[in-house]
Amino acid sequence: MDEDCIKSTGDYFLLCDNEGPWSVVLESLAILGIVVTIMLLLAFLFLMRKVQDCSQWNVLPTQFLFLLGVLGLFGLAFAFIIQLNQQTAPVRFFLFGVLFALCFSCLLAHASNLVKLVRNGVSFSWTTMLCIAIGCSLLQTIIAIEYVTLIMTRGMTFMNMTPCQLNVDFVVLLVYVLFLMALTFFVSKATLCGPCENWKQHGRLIFVTVLFSIIIWVVWISMLLRGNPQFQRQPHWDDPVICIGLVTNAWVFLLLYIIPELCILYRSCRQECPLQGNTCQVPTYQRTFCVENQELSRARDSDGAEEDVALTPYGTPIQPQPVDPTQECFIPRAKLGPQQDAG
């Protein structure tokens, strides 16, 4: 009985391994990350109904998709806490790259939108940003499907591969994710150049998030390919190294990007009139119900150039009032005197 029980639960031994407390710590951090991510998802759903600036609202669906990717990363940590077997191996090789590709694609879409906003105040539509995020992550999905299908259908399976082969294949499978990370890093640097100052704070958040992500990835890949063999800890340290990098990067996404973005969004929702475009030289992105000031003077060709000026009910000319295009207010149409109605 005891031998059968040990064999049947051998795959899950690391969950209760007293010599490996890393599994308990990472399991706790992953569960806490799942709870925090769900709370942030609910907060985004609540604030989406209160956002009045279209340029801010357009990025919210992409950030919501980003949070779903982060939620998947925290859930994926349990596939590395349980030791490698025929069930967890395909999940690891498929979801690790796909989820990270989705997260970095969302950051790339947001950074590309900020490049337009800081230069000319024009924003992508929310559908365009979603297409960019999903389209950029689609290639990694195709690559992962082809690799897992080839491994599962050919003679040599994951369990028959050496630890060195598994690690090399795992890293090589993430080359496209590394490309997305580098591209997002350079695009986020471009958001720091432009006349619209207030949009640059979003670009700084993406820049810092990707910078810390690059550092995390360099560390765990170096340990996986070089450090563990040199310390003669392969394959005992392989799963902890990957899982630590996974959970750490997921928390970096939350602490350095999502939570600051949520704070900025909350502050803008409390203001009556958004101030995002105030420092832009040509703020062209406005809400549809904000109307421009009507022309109060027009030319009329009747026996010469005679001007028709709008008058108040007391007969005095109406002076044009400058309108701040960033203020969300309705401007009533000027009432015309009887002379103008007759004309």
TrEMBL record:
Keyword Cell membrane: yes
Residue ranges, annotated region (Disordered): 299-323
InterPro entries: Bride_of_7less, GPCR_3_C, RA-inducible_GPCR3
Keywords: Cell membrane, G-protein coupled receptor, Membrane, Receptor, Transducer, Transmembrane, Transmembrane helix
Membrane topology, as annotated: Multi-pass membrane protein
Transmembrane segments: 29-48, 60-81, 93-112, 124-145, 166-186, 206-225, 237-259
Compartment list: Cell membrane
GO biological process: visual perception
Single annotated GO MF: G protein-coupled receptor activity
Keyword set includes Cell membrane: yes
Cellular-component GO terms for this entry: extracellular exosome; plasma membrane; receptor complex
Any single Pfam family the record assigns to this protein: 7tm_3
Domain G-protein coupled receptors family 3 profile, residue spans: 17-261
Superkingdom field: Eukaryota
Annotated family: Belongs to the G-protein coupled receptor 3 family.
Protein name listed in UniProt: G protein-coupled receptor class C group 5 member D
Source organism (scientific name): Otolemur garnettii (Small-eared galago)
